[in-house]
Amino acid sequence: MIEIVETGPFNTVQDLGRPGYRDIGVSASGAMDPLAVKIGNILVGNAEGAATLEIQTFPFRLIFKRRSAFVVSGTDGNPLLDGIELLPWCAYNAEVGQVLELKQPPKLARAYVAIGGGVDVPCIMGSRSTSLRGNFGGNAGRPLEKGDRIAVGEEAGILPIPASGLGVVEPAVALLEFFPRSADGSLLIRALPAGEHKLFVGDGEAFWSQTWRISSRSDRTGYRLSGDPVVPMEIVEMRSHGVVPGVIQVPPGGEPIVQMSDANTAGGYPKIVGVIECDLWRLGQARIGTRLQFVRSSYAEARAIEQAVASYIEDVRRTSGQIKRALKAMA
Amino acid sequence: MIAPSNGHALQREILSSTKARARVSSIGSRSFLLEAPGDFDLAAQRRIWALSQTVKGWPDIAEIIPGMTNLLAILKETPEDPDVVVDRLLEAWDSALSIDLKGKTIEIPVHYGGQHATDLPALCDLSGLSDRDVVRIHHEATYRVFALGSAPGFGYLHGLDPRIYMPRKTVPSLRMEKGCVTIGGMQTGVAMLTGPNGWNSIGFAEMQMFDPTSASPAMMAPGDTVRFLPARIEL
Fold first, then answer.
1. For residue B174, what pLDDT is reported?
2. How confident is the model at residue B20 (pLDDT cuts 50, 70, 90)?
3. pLDDT-above-70 percentage for chain A
4. CATH classification at residue A272
């Protein structure tokens, strides 16, 4: 059991989402940074898809009502346990009554709290993620509030965590060669042309060449991009069709919208590109105001990045298991 | 097969046996959208239903989202060669026979007019019909659920009488109540969530049509027949 002591708006319970129900209009939801959820869960000995807390407004504080292993992942900010600074991406043990505090991260958007045993809210349609739009899932279908007491599952792993913590090299560093930054510091997001790309003049030149900014009208459903509007050469009447996170649609005003984790299941605006899935977690960590540039990708590149991420996750799983087993043997 | 015109390999089209050309495009690296050619009608949708049944059985498919005369196929993994996926989808479309899903019949009691019928006057102006005629035309028709989407359990209903077609609003209503009976272009449906909505409301239905805790959360399914029963008419 944990209790929420302080929270901003729109912090929710999220796991890896509930894909598979979009054919009945249910958004997949799930963490905006699924890589952080997987790594956090592995470090505390959970299945990689266990439910976590997604914290996107700060400060946030919770109190542990039971001795628990925990990790704060995804973020570049240092969590505080009873006021003592700890490292992100690092598993620790919390004693009963200790308070975990998260302050506004320096640069990134979202922090994930993974707890040994996982956040134990009812599993609805295969997931514990909060559907804010549908008002179901997660913690009673709504954001976390001060005073919420939330159950935590039984810890599966009895393997110990060293007193000094058990950390990983975070993915942005470990996988630097696969997730490059531009010279001017803007985020490079890889994408493939989508259905209506050819309706934009000069092969979408204006879209690909400019630096976009994530507008303040952005949330878990989608990010609006500010910049010089891009408009198709002709107006096409699209029939409503399925969409997935990463699709970039261009409504009549010419300001592109990137659909994110709470993406609607259907859409009809012209689609200029689709962000490759393995770059979505980086968008999920990009704050309002972040400058973005889109880079034309390929299937081969997408596969290479996916394989690199998969082997990084596997490496974390194997190594953390080895360390815990060694500690247990020494104990 | 027609060669790609713009250098993008996924923009290919194919001539099917019915001389109709389907189009396949992609979203990201593992989602592929097949759009049926021709009119927005039951014949095209029946072939989409058939295509859906075929594609759903492919071992590399994670999920499918049937839309309005189109189908989004989401693969489990990014394919090595997207052209192979495009070809498979086009071949499957080409050999998809029209099927008619049996479906069930759903009768939805509607309170026509009244406080929720915020767009009924505008529809009367547009159509030149009286409010009584608009309501009668709406509830006398028989509708088919073409697909679900946009909101949990929301069914896009086909079969609206062309006399009461009404374009979606350019500026959506900011807060339309769940349960509003609405018209969007040539489609009708019942709003499943309270919130912004660009469709035009002419009445209200109390019936609950989505329960996330149920084994089958959505009441409607593609192929179902829907009739609106005028429980009350308040004009």
1. 86
2. low
3. 99
4. 2.40.100.10
Q: Express each pLDDT in B28-60 by its tens digit.
A: 999 999 999 998 899 999 999 999 999 999 999
Question: Strand runs (DSSP E) across chain B, as ranges?
Answer: 13-15, 21-27, 31-35, 61-66, 70-75, 105-113, 143-148, 155-158, 173-176, 180-184, 187-190, 195-197, 200-204, 225-234
Min Cα distance B235 → chain A (Å) is 32
Question: Do A89 and A47 reside in the same domain of the chain?
Answer: yes
Q: What is the length of chain B? A: 235
The token pair at A71 is: 């990790």
Domain membership of residue A140 as a residue range: 2-168
**Sequence-ordered list of residues with C-beta below 8 angstroms from that of A54, at least 6 positions apart, any chain:** A11, A12, A13, A14, A31, A32, A110, A111, A112
Token pair belonging to A284: 């999920």
Domains (range + CATH), chain B: 13-94 (3.30.1360.40), 105-234 (2.40.100.10)
**Number of domains forming the structure of chain A:** 2
Note the ipTM here. Answer: 0.95
Short-list A291, A277, A290, CA closest to A35: A277
Within this chain, do residues A95 and A48 fall inside the same structural domain, yes or no? Answer: yes
Q: Which of B20, B57, B59 is nearest to B38 (CA)?
A: B20
The string of pLDDT tens digits covering residues A243-264 is 999 999 998 889 999 999 999 9
Please tell me the predicted confidence (pLDDT) of residue B13. 43
Look-up: residue for tokens 């010279």? A183
User: Rounded distance, CA A285 to CA B158, Å?
Assistant: 41
Contacts of B6 in chain A (CB under 8 A): 198, 203
Inform me whether the C-beta atom of residue B82 falls under 8 Å from chain A C-beta atoms.
Answer: yes
Tell me: pLDDT of A182 over 70: yes
Query: Which of A22, A24, A208 to mutate against chain B (most B CBs within 10 Å)?
Result: A24
| Same domain as A31, residue A109 | yes
pTM as predicted? 0.92
B28 inside 8 A of chain A by CB: yes
